């Protein structure tokens, strides 16, 4: 979801952890947070697509965000959570280690992603937010969720 | 409601009106030789009139002009000045088609070919025996045309000579007129537009104040109108209040004008007529009323009593269907939980749960029924297709439709339009012979195509039956051989030859005509039907005709599925696709080439496709001892054996699309939710087989 840079209002973000890195999403694109449930594996799916789950009747694909961000595959168990995110009309679940916080930030707090070598980082991280001693990486949902980015082309 | 809304409503109403129009024309078609029923003609007239009226309100001038001429010609038919001959009826059908096109164009804002319209207007005018009707039509002020929604049975069709005439109008509203929100002043104003109007109030009936029932209608008016407009213009003013007043229109300075017997006007001007509750109502007035009421009711009967309906947005219905689907799944999960908890089968909770189950099923079925629609509009479209196709092919065709009220899922109806169009064109083009040939064969020159629909054992059966020459099997076989579709020395049974028609790239017509044979053949029809979960069959008798039968599921929202196990994954295979299931004996399985294997079933060798392998769950199995083979038929007329590891169950499953969440997966048709709440993927047998045989177009890596 494109975050309007011009908005003067404060925004709320959901911060979560994958491994030892912290990421975040605009709270407006988060529909709910659920505990892990086993997925139905989809044939010929890319490795980061873990399968689909039944979310009250909707078929929702689950993305292993660690795998998608090339942080090494996360072996899911019951301690992990799924963030159900909505982008445009598409719903997807993101498997993460844990949700840590809900924070309020000013839009100006979002800094451009520092240039680092990894293309994956450039593709999936929209920007970074400095918060006390932490760095929150703002996820670009449309790049992470399969289908949406392709459809835009 | 803003303007766009009202406009939208108008077009929706027009759909109904077009339906009534086509219906009426069909009925006149059926009975023209015995004399068309005047009520039917009236119904047709009214439909056109209402469309014209609405179109006028939205300033759709092209539409109004066309409808006006159509109406005029229909009026001539109604007045008995012209006879409903086949040629005229054909013209009417074409006019109705054109009207429908114009409506469509007006709705979408697209341009229409004016020539076509103009030509038809001229033909209609000529048919009405009214050479200068077009110029009349142009001269008339269309802006005036009211939204005519009520009946106007009594227009005096014969145009009166020019010149001013004086009419005496006695107008006595009944109380119902006021309660419907009508205002006599408005009527008088409209009348005043027609010419010189004098209005005199007759309040002689008004009782003393003490005795006054304020809700009763006590007033009546004597009007004198001097106008050069024909009398039916005056009738039209009172169109909306018909039955709500006693009305008498009398031509002054002349003998009383001839009025139709059904005209609800009181013959005696001296006897003011009153509401029946008024106890001293005079005989003429009660006669008037009773004459008016049956007219209306007779009319309703004719246009098959409209059932009360509600227009609902499709989205809402779909949401409801989804939720009910959830309810059913939830119920299944609950049952499973209860069972897992070890609750004894006869315990009250299990009994209640069974009740819940049947209720949930019932709700589901009722909700599905909301999406179901009568197949009639589709059939009406087909009769147009047949008509146009017959015109091009120079054949005489009668399309008879049966079972129009059969209800089918809306989506099925929508997706049936193309294949059915193709089949009808095929029947006209290839099925029915030319009139000469038919005559030579001792048949009626007019060929008959019967399009029928019926419910049969939980499915919908649609048949296209023609009384043509039947399939020319030697020729079909020759063509198939020349195109290399079958080996030169093939010996095929009649049924096998017939089914050659479904092979891709088959077209029997020696000349590629305008109608069919545009490179799309019956194979396209077949795959369209199969995509709907249906089957198509063909039966033909030389010299007698050909029948195509389509059997379709009632709805696309649920599916009869076989729940199977594939390499530890639970999957669903649509039952209609499965011909049989079997456990192969080791000696029946033969290797063919590198890695390919076939199974011998009753003398034929059928390729084996391992579902586990094509979906990447495992490497292909080599031993089939513990597996089950599902024998499926694919669109290419080939049998194929899908390998699964076991069959769990057979049940109705609710279909959930995958496209919105993830995108298409080759070999997978959709998903469903099982009793345990897990999602199971529904296998598309056709694609699965194609995947197994290495069809590059379905390669998931591409």
TrEMBL record, chain A:
<dbReference type="InterPro" id="IPR039315">
    <property type="entry name" value="CheW"/>
</dbReference>
<dbReference type="Pfam" id="PF01584">
    <property type="entry name" value="CheW"/>
</dbReference>
<feature type="domain" description="CheW-like">
    <location>
        <begin position="10"/>
        <end position="150"/>
    </location>
</feature>
<dbReference type="GO" id="GO:0005829">
    <property type="term" value="C:cytosol"/>
</dbReference>
<dbReference type="GO" id="GO:0007165">
    <property type="term" value="P:signal transduction"/>
</dbReference>
<dbReference type="GO" id="GO:0006935">
    <property type="term" value="P:chemotaxis"/>
</dbReference>
<dbReference type="InterPro" id="IPR036061">
    <property type="entry name" value="CheW-like_dom_sf"/>
</dbReference>
<protein>
    <submittedName>
        <fullName>Purine-binding chemotaxis protein CheW</fullName>
    </submittedName>
</protein>
<dbReference type="InterPro" id="IPR002545">
    <property type="entry name" value="CheW-lke_dom"/>
</dbReference>
TrEMBL record, chain B:
<keyword id="KW-0067">ATP-binding</keyword>
<comment type="function">
    <text>Involved in the transmission of sensory signals from the chemoreceptors to the flagellar motors. CheA is autophosphorylated; it can transfer its phosphate group to either CheB or CheY.</text>
</comment>
<protein>
    <recommendedName>
        <fullName>Chemotaxis protein CheA</fullName>
        <ecNumber>2.7.13.3</ecNumber>
    </recommendedName>
</protein>
<dbReference type="InterPro" id="IPR005467">
    <property type="entry name" value="His_kinase_dom"/>
</dbReference>
<dbReference type="InterPro" id="IPR037006">
    <property type="entry name" value="CheA-like_homodim_sf"/>
</dbReference>
<keyword id="KW-0808">Transferase</keyword>
<feature type="domain" description="HPt">
    <location>
        <begin position="1"/>
        <end position="106"/>
    </location>
</feature>
<dbReference type="InterPro" id="IPR036061">
    <property type="entry name" value="CheW-like_dom_sf"/>
</dbReference>
<dbReference type="GO" id="GO:0005524">
    <property type="term" value="F:ATP binding"/>
</dbReference>
<dbReference type="Pfam" id="PF01627">
    <property type="entry name" value="Hpt"/>
</dbReference>
<feature type="modified residue" description="Phosphohistidine">
    <location>
        <position position="49"/>
    </location>
</feature>
<feature type="domain" description="Histidine kinase">
    <location>
        <begin position="353"/>
        <end position="556"/>
    </location>
</feature>
<dbReference type="InterPro" id="IPR051315">
    <property type="entry name" value="Bact_Chemotaxis_CheA"/>
</dbReference>
<dbReference type="InterPro" id="IPR004105">
    <property type="entry name" value="CheA-like_dim"/>
</dbReference>
<feature type="compositionally biased region" description="Basic and acidic residues">
    <location>
        <begin position="298"/>
        <end position="310"/>
    </location>
</feature>
<dbReference type="GO" id="GO:0006935">
    <property type="term" value="P:chemotaxis"/>
</dbReference>
<dbReference type="InterPro" id="IPR002545">
    <property type="entry name" value="CheW-lke_dom"/>
</dbReference>
<dbReference type="InterPro" id="IPR036890">
    <property type="entry name" value="HATPase_C_sf"/>
</dbReference>
<keyword id="KW-0902">Two-component regulatory system</keyword>
<dbReference type="Pfam" id="PF02895">
    <property type="entry name" value="H-kinase_dim"/>
</dbReference>
<dbReference type="InterPro" id="IPR036097">
    <property type="entry name" value="HisK_dim/P_sf"/>
</dbReference>
<dbReference type="GO" id="GO:0005737">
    <property type="term" value="C:cytoplasm"/>
</dbReference>
């Amino acid at each position: 979801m494109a975050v309007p840079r011009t908005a003067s209002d404060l925004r709320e973000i959901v911060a979560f952890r994958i491994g030892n890195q912290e990421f975040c999403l605009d709270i407006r694109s988060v529909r709910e947070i659920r505990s892990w449930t086993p997925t139905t594996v989809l044939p010929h799916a890319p490795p980061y697509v873990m399968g689909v789950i039944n979310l009250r009747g909707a078929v929702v694909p689950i993305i292993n965000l660690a795998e998608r961000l090339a942080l090494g595959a996360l072996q899911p168990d019951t301690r992990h959570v799924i963030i159900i995110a909505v982008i445009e009309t598409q719903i997807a679940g993101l498997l993460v280690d844990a949700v840590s916080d809900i924070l309020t930030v000013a839009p100006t707090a979002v800094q451009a992603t520092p240039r680092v070598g990894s293309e994956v980082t450039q593709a999936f991280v929209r920007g970074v937010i400095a918060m006390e001693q932490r760095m929150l990486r703002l996820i670009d949902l449309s790049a992470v969720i399969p289908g949406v980015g392709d459809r835009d082309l | 409601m803003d303007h766009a809304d009202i406009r939208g409503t108008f077009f929706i109403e027009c759909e109904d009106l077009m339906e009534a129009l086509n219906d009426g024309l069909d009925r006149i078609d059926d009975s023209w030789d015995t004399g068309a029923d005047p009520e039917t003609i009236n119904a047709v007239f009214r439909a056109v009139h209402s469309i014209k009226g609405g179109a006028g309100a939205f300033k759709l001038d092209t539409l109004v002009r066309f409808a006006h001429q159509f109406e005029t010609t229909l009026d001539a038919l109604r007045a008995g000045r012209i006879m409903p001959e086949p040629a005229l009826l054909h013209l009417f059908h074409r006019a109705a088609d054109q009207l429908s096109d114009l409506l469509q164009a007006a709705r979408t804002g697209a341009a229409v070919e004016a020539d076509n319209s103009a030509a038809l207007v001229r033909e209609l005018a000529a048919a009405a025996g009214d050479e200068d009707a077009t110029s009349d039509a142009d001269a008339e002020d269309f802006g005036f045309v009211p939204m005519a929604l009520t009946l106007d049975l009594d227009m005096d069709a014969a145009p009166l000579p020019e010149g001013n005439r004086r009419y005496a109008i006695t107008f006595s509203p009944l109380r119902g007129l006021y309660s419907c929100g009508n205002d006599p002043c408005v009527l008088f104003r409209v009348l005043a537009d027609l010419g010189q109007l004098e209005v005199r109030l007759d309040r002689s009936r008004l009782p003393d104040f003490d005795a006054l029932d304020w809700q009763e209608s006590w007033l009546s008016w004597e009007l004198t109108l001097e106008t050069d407009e024909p009398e039916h213009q005056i009738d039209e003013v009172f169109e909306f209040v018909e039955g709500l007043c006693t009305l008498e229109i009398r031509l002054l300075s002349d003998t009383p004008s001839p009025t139709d017997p059904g005209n609800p006007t009181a013959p005696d001007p001296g006897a003011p007529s009153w509401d029946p509750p008024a106890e001293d109502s005079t005989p003429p007035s009660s006669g008037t009323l009773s004459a008016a009421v049956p007219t209306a009711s007779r009319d309703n009967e004719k246009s098959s009593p409209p059932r009360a309906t509600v227009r609902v947005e499709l989205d809402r219905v779909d949401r409801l269907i989804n939720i009910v689907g959830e309810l059913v799944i939830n119920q299944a999960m609950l049952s499973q939980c209860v069972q897992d908890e070890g609750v004894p089968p006869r315990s009250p909770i299990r009994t209640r749960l069974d009740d819940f189950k049947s209720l949930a099923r019932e709700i589901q079925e009722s909700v599905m029924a909301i999406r179901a629609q009568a197949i009639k509009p589709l059939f009406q479209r087909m009769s147009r297709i047949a008509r146009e196709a017959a015109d091009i092919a120079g054949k005489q065709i009668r399309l008879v439709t049966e079972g129009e009220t059969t209800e089918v899922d809306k989506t099925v109806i929508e997706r049936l339009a193309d294949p059915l169009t193709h089949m009808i064109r095929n029947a006209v083009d290839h099925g029915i012979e030319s009139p000469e040939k038919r005559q030579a064969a001792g048949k009626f020159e007019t060929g008959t195509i019967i399009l029928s629909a019926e419910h049969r054992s939980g499915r919908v059966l649609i048949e296209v039956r023609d009384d043509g020459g039947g399939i020319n099997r030697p020729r079909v076989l020759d063509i198939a051989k020349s195109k290399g579709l079958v080996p030169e020395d093939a010996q095929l049974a009649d049924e096998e030859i017939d089914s050659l028609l479904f092979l891709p790239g088959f077209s029997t017509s020696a000349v590629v005509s305008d109608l069919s044979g545009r490179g799309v053949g019956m194979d396209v029809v077949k795959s369209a039907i199969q995509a709907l979960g249906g089957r198509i069959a063909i039966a033909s008798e030389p010299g007698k005709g050909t029948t195509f039968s389509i059997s379709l599921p009632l709805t696309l929202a649920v599916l009869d599925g076989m729940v199977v196990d594939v390499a530890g994954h639970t999957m669903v295979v649509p039952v209609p696709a499965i011909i049989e299931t079997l456990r192969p004996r080791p000696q029946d399985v033969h290797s063919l080439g590198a890695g390919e294997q076939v199974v011998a079933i009753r003398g034929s060798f059928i390729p084996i496709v391992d579902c586990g392998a094509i979906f990447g769950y495992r490497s292909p199995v080599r031993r089939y001892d513990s597996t089950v083979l599902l024998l499926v038929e694919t669109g290419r007329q080939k049998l194929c054996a899908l390998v699964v590891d076991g069959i769990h169950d057979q049940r109705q499953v609710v279909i959930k699309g995958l496209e919105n969440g993830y995108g298409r997966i080759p070999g997978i048709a959709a998903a469903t939710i099982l009793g345990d709440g897990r999602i199971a993927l529904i296998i598309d047998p056709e694609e699965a087989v194609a995947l197994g045989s290495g069809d590059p177009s379905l390669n998931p890596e591409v």
